[in-house]
């Protein structure tokens, strides 16, 4: 199987212990030879230095790395400085996002939507960066309608994005429908499917509520029925997510982006089954 569009996402560790653990996780995941690792970026300044630090460490280990960059709460000046730092560090690809404001934050700011960030990056740095943007097969939770959300996605590509990574989902049809509709609008960039391995029922439900990803009822019921039996949750999760990936790749998905949650086991298990 082709692995050219296979990538793995981390979040920047908050403690030295977390950083040590992530080094071990990275060593294991590097054996799968992903095209690149990406590192998330906290809106509101929380983990911005952590993002760059982690990216630099990954690069120094000889792997390609892409920082995420969110614009909400940022200014042209602050974003220009970050882009300059990225360029000075030899970073050639990034994931450009709006980000989410912490609750209680008033809003406003110089950048309202991710298409404005993409436009800004192109204006400031030309073609230096390969830019990935987010896509939502099951609709972004704040969008007015699927059509509006698709238009917003198209605007990010028109502003200069090279490719997209989707929010995770467990309904393959939602992905295929989204890509078909994007193609009808003339959007022809690769839309890489975001994959969330299933290892923990409570965590999955919490995340999915926040980001608007639907867990199909039969999957939810089965996971809930396992209670504290984590081995069964993991085994069932592995089956469900591997068949999702198989269906996506067979149906033409150009690649997979794994939300690793800084863990190696689940992503490795899925990947090994896929390449068998
Ligand atoms: C692959 C991936 C990686 C991510 N990484 C991070 C990360 O590192 N850090 C982080 O903080 N968050 C991250 N997120 C979460 C993301 O920041 C949130 O989902 C955020 O709410 C939206 O970001 P966006 O870039 O998709 O925004 P946008 O594309 O700007 O869309 C946001 C919302 O605004 C709507 N919209 C867009 N333009 C307009 C307009 N002109 N008028 C009205 N409505 C409009 C859209 O329909 C959508 O509902 C990631 C998400 C994905 C899928």
Using only C-alpha atoms, the radius of gyration works out to 18 Å
- Bound compounds, please? flavin-adenine dinucleotide
Largest beta-sheet details: 8 strands, parallel, barrel
Q: End-to-end span in angstroms?
A: 9 Å
Helix content: 40-55%
Judging by the overall fold, what is the CATH architecture? Alpha-Beta Barrel
Strand content: 5-15%
Number of strands: 8
Shape: globular
| Domain tally | 1
Please give the count of helices: 10
Q: Strand order across the biggest sheet?
A: 1-2-3-4-5-6-7-8
If you average the pLDDT, what whole number results?
A: 94
**Structural class by secondary-structure content:** alpha/beta
CATH C-level:
Alpha Beta
**String of helices and strands:** EHEHEHEHEHEHEHHHEH
Uncertain ranges:
none
Protein name: Methylenetetrahydrofolate reductase
Pathway: Amino-acid biosynthesis; L-methionine biosynthesis via de novo pathway; One-carbon metabolism; tetrahydrofolate interconversion
Organism: Massilia yuzhufengensis
EC number: 1.5.1.54
């Amino acid at each position: 199987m082709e692995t050219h569009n296979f990538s793995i996402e981390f979040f920047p560790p908050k403690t030295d212990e977390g950083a040590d653990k992530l080094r071990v996780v990275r060593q294991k995941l590097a054996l799968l030879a992903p095209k690149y690792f990406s590192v998330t970026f906290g809106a509101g300044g929380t983990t911005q230095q952590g993002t760059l630090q982690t990216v630099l460490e990954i690069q120094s280990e000889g792997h390609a790395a892409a920082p995420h960059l969110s614009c909400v709460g940022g200014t042209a000046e602050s974003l220009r400085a970050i882009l300059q730092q990225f360029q000075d560090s030899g970073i050639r690809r990034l994931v450009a996002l709006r980000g989410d404001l912490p609750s209680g934050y008033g809003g406003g700011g110089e950048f309202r939507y991710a298409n404005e960030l993409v436009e800004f990056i192109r204006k400031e740095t030309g073609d230096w960066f390969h830019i990935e943007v987010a896509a939502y097969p099951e609709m972004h939770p704040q969008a007015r309608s699927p059509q509006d959300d698709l238009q917003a996605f198209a605007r990010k590509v028109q502003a200069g994005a090279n490719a997209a990574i989707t929010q995770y989902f467990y309904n393959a049809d939602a992905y295929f429908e989204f890509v078909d509709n994007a193609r009808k609008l003339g959007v022809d960039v690769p839309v890489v499917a975001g994959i969330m391995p299933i290892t923990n029922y409570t965590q999955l439900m919490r995340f999915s509520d926040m980001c608007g990803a639907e867990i199909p009822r039969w999957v939810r019921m089965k996971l809930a029925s396992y209670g504290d039996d984590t081995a069964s949750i993991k085994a069932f999760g592995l089956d469900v997510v591997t068949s999702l990936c198989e269906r996506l790749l067979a149906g033409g998905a150009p690649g997979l982006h794994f939300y690793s949650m800084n863990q190696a086991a689940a992503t490795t298990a899925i990947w090994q089954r896929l390449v068998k």
